[in-house]
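Supplementary Data S3. Sequence and structure tokens for construct A.
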Amino acid sequence: MAQPTAWDHPEPLALDTAPLPEYGTGSLADLLPTLAAGMSVPGMTAAIPELAPADRNCVFLIDGLGWEQLWAHPDEAPFLTSLLGSSRGGTGRPLTAGYPATTATSLASVGTGLPPGAHGLPGYTVRDPATGALMNQLRWQPWTDPYTWQPYPTVFQLAEAAGVHAAQVSSPAFASTPLTKVALSGGTFLGRLTGEDRMDLAAGQLAAADRSLVYTYYAELDGAGHRYGVASDTWRGQLMYVDRLVQRLAEQLPPRSALYVTADHGMVDVPFDEQHRIDFDEDWELRAGVALLGGEGRARHVYAVPGAADDVLTCWREVLGEQFWIASRDEAIEAGWFGPAVDERVYARIGDVVAAAHDDVLITASEREPKESLMVGNHGSMTPAEQLVPLLEVRS
């Protein structure tokens, strides 16, 4: 009888089977530059050719509203569902979020008009090369200088410099956060607590000038998905509320306006069992040679101890390669996961090994990340459920 060998491991997923974001033609990073180009902002390119110019543009970003989740819930979102044919300039197609499909990365892509490899927020948590410690880019902990971390101007800043009225309408809690500073600053920030107040104020800001660029945001749908899952009554209730908010804003658009409803990512519910949730903190094979575990459950950055990167890559491919796309840092960069290029300052923020989920699985860390490990709904990878987001359009 033939003896089993290491080669009996199933073949890992080929990296060229990962569905890349449409950087440069149809990703979140292309949205604001396209709108700003239509308002004659210098240096901006209309990268999404399907979008017709408008004098007044409003982007309403609903955290966690994936394309597939919206299609699956027409009864809860009748108004949004009626707009599905308008997506991406009437093509009925979605945008792609970018990799990883997570809030900090996506908001930076939206606001700067740059892919993650350029703006430098390539994950939920990433290693800070200056300190060697993990840095949470959503909560900005531990603190680091925001403008060193992300030095590029935002599209709002460029638009304001070109004479466009720029405004952000969001929760007052986000007024002065580092993420807001590096991703969404420029023009006027207006904080309002209720969704209804935000919609009314966004419409008023659109009408405040002949050329306006307005951004507004709603987070609670995402929170419901993380805590209860996208199959929950709580999530569906939030979707019903969001549907009413969008209709409220659409009905108040001033003349010559375009409203775009989009999202930062979709979401996947992951079952609570050992088959679907692989606990890094209890798996000696996955821990071997690993100095830091970054990212999040479906989009991991793995930082090896010096000299161990090749061994970690081999082990992770053997253990997880059927369920995750597993790439070295250079392979992920060459494949274009983070965009067409990666800035030198960003290179070492990316893991020595990058793991992107293909199946409905997570790499949890029950000791290091107790709260995140309990989330029902998750996101981050390149699957359609996470990566595809709507770009619904209403014009006046």
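Construct B, processed identically:
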Amino acid sequence: MAQPTAWDPHPEPLAVDSAPLPQYGSGSLADLLPTLAAGMGVPGTTATITELAPADRNCVFLIDGLGWEQLRAHPEDAPFMTALLDSSRGGTGRPLTAGYPATTATSLASVGTGLPPGAHGLPGYTVRNPDTGELMNQLRWQPWTQPRAWQPYPTIFQLAHDAGVHAAQVSSPTFENTPLTKVALSGGKFLGRLSGEDRMDLAAEQLAAADRALVYTYYAELDGAGHRFGVDSDTWRGQLMHVDRLVQRLAEQLPPNSALYVTADHGMVDIPFDEQHRIDFDEDWELRAGVALLGGEGRARHVYAVPGAANDVLTCWREVLGEQFWVASRDEAIAAGWFGPHIDDRVYARLGDVVAAARDDVLIIASEREPKESAMVGNHGSMTPAEQFVPLLEVRS
């Protein structure tokens, strides 16, 4: 594509197919648990991350918000994990990709079901419920909808449990009965512990509880620090130091024939607080024209048009944002593979009529509709390396 010159009044928008796709089917988060389960002989699972060797006992420690690039940028704060960087993805030293959008609800569903977003059906932070016409927050599950109708596939933990593998999730007690846990991470035992240290100790115990075990544990506070203070703040660095010690604590307790995998749901970028980097939808009449609902989040928007206005909204968003965002129609994003190789029928209308993914350090905020989200320092969601790349650090016993 020709590069626009300084005097070109109409530079071309970013091509939809120029967005760097997640590695669905070979190196995405959705491929991790099926690969581990297949190595333990669980029926209905396939090992698609070919670099990983099978183990009888597998533990996945997911650290919310620990992107590959952020980890590599802070070696002094995470010496134990930094020493494991060469072990990532089966010793290749390469990251996984989160999937699009790179956001917690989507990624946890991809991890737990072993399916890309177009199949499991949690394709964003907020998306339209076609049955009600309302925006649904898939992280908080508001407004409430029937979980199994929204995401009907069994989790890999359930498949493993049914195959006689000891399956357990060790996390905060607050997550035990949430709809997101039920649709994404249920199956086997849920064991709640408040402190990170207690979770590490219990995860190691659960690994040792059977000859074949699949254990998942989780830490959320690093992500919270990034959203509130940014990924280069003292608070974020302090959380990184803490989680590094947690990883070492778990690694030192692994029972025999175990593999520990440390990964994340997304990375994060800090966005400056000025009008150049934060475009306010609630104050931009051009972007609002013809839009019925604004979904997604600042770096990964689902835009739902009023009936008959989808083409006009697409044209406008491309003209206004097309140099900084990949802007696609729903069908273009599907054809390009943003949400995976196929889209389930029930998921199709959950996607925006227009889908916008940030390439540059920029956000589409909504200061009136989304005041808390619009005030965050650290953000994520799109397909840039800082958001997409997550580690897959490995320790074996």
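DSSP finds 18 helices and 18 strands in the chain. Residues 1-8 have pLDDT under 50 and may be disordered.
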